[in-house]
Amino acid sequence: METLPLQDYNIYVGDFDQRLSDWLAEKVYSRLLIIVDQNTKMHCWPLLEPVVSAYQHSLIEIPAGEDHKHLETCQQIWQTMMEARADRRSLTIDLGGGVIGDMGGFCASTFKRGMDFVQMPTTLLSQVDASIGGKLGIDFMQVKNSIGVFRNPQAVYIDPRFLRTLSARELRSGFAEIIKHSLIADREQWEELRQISDLGKVDWPKLIVPSLRIKQRIVEIDPFERGLRKALNFGHTIGHAVEGHALETDAPLLHGEAIAVGMIAETYLSHRQLDLSAEALETITDFIRRIYEPVALDPATFPELLRLMSNDKKNESQAINFSLLPAAGSVEVNRTASPAEIVESLEYYNEIVAVGNRI
Ligand SMILES: NC(=O)c1ccc[n+]([C@@H]2O[C@H](COP(=O)([O-])OP(=O)(O)OC[C@H]3O[C@@H](n4cnc5c(N)ncnc54)[C@H](O)[C@@H]3O)[C@@H](O)[C@H]2O)c1
């Protein structure tokens, strides 16, 4: 097991059983509340149950998926916590992907003004990204993660065994954040990644740790997103808008799929606004296009996408804020782009994917 220490908690990578068992024995919580959805109950709970069965515990099962990451599901979680007589000395274990991590952590942080929680991410996306950095929250009025708090877990247990039951589509979605980490901070890792042609043959544990280290380094320097942390937003200004819009259609996109769209469009903006070379633009967009299904954007939706972008929490005054790439492996935060430039980047995206489903 590898340990990555952060200022006030540790990330453990590897089989969690012994480490969690020792930790629980040390801590003495009044009750454990384990949040699962139907998939993590079936595939992941059997690994965790033997470790927690010696303690008073309740399982809180919520419906799976982003379209349940809202207030109503929080009410269900808080109600079950209340019925289980949870108190501030209880511990929540978020056993699931980014939706459970963000929402479960948010519910634990607000229930009776806050109880401890542990992240146990079970998707690739949550293992390399969502479970660390302390951002918790839910979607509200179609705006992603618009209600939430910053609060750190007691620990994060990243166990690659969970990935065995994850679908190829979910793995591909998580891979988007690994691509992003390398593009903003690690040219060498990017050069290695871009040799990948078949995600089915990837040794995931080998990619997870370096990717985690990039996020760890950034969130430690800037835990509340006042500056450097905005670097992690590369691909997300446009990606979040595309994701938010797609959520309202009958063809919702996974988070990483929307971020892949955003990364292509924002790489184009990087080329237009910074020194990113035409060659780098082509290499990056070509790699992303090879990995992800094309999703052509209907130009009639561009005004709606712009509206969603202007609601992004990271904006300051009226301008839409971007983190862009001067070169592969480095990033510049607090860039802005005009609506016309953003539309041009969406048109570029449409051109390079050429055909595909419209959202
Ligand atoms: N807090 C942050 O810093 C941060 C960063 C990035 C993304 N996010 C959030 O993360 C969310 C997306 O997370 P996600 O991609 O993990 O989606 P998710 O949580 O919806 O999980 C995806 C699907 O996989 C299933 N699943 C989970 N683990 C499984 C396993 N081991 N085997 C089989 N099925 C499994 C889930 O039930 C779900 O159906 C978004 O809401 C996004 O906003 C947060």
Task: Explain what you see.
Helix 7 (168-185) runs parallel beside helix 11. This protein folds into two domains: 2-165, 3-Layer(aba) Sandwich (Rossmann fold), CATH 3.40.50.1970; 168-358, Dehydroquinate synthase-like, alpha domain (Up-down Bundle). The chain has helices at 17-27, 38-43, 45-52, 71-83, 98-110, 124-130, 168-185, 187-193, 204-221, 236-247, 255-273, 278-291, 302-310, 339-353, and strands at residues 2-5, 10-13, 32-37, 57-62, 91-96, 116-121, 135-140, 143-150, 155-158, 295-296, 321-327, 330-336, 357-358. The longest helix has 19 residues, at 255-273. A hairpin with a 2-residue loop joins strand 7 and strand 8. With 359 residues, the protein is an alpha/beta fold. The strands form four sheets. It has a seven-stranded mixed beta sheet with strand order 1-2-9-6-5-3-4. Strands 7-8 form a two-stranded antiparallel sheet. It has a two-stranded parallel ribbon with strand order 10-13. The structure holds nicotinamide-adenine-dinucleotide (NAD). Nicotinamide-adenine-dinucleotide is lined by residues 37, 39-40, 43-44, 64-66, 69, 96-100, 102, 122-123, 125-126, 129-130, 133, 135, 144-145, 162, 165-166, 170, 173, 255. Residues 174-315 form the 3-dehydroquinate synthase C-terminal domain. Its EC number is 4.2.3.4. One of its GO terms (cellular component) is cytoplasm. This is 3-dehydroquinate synthase.
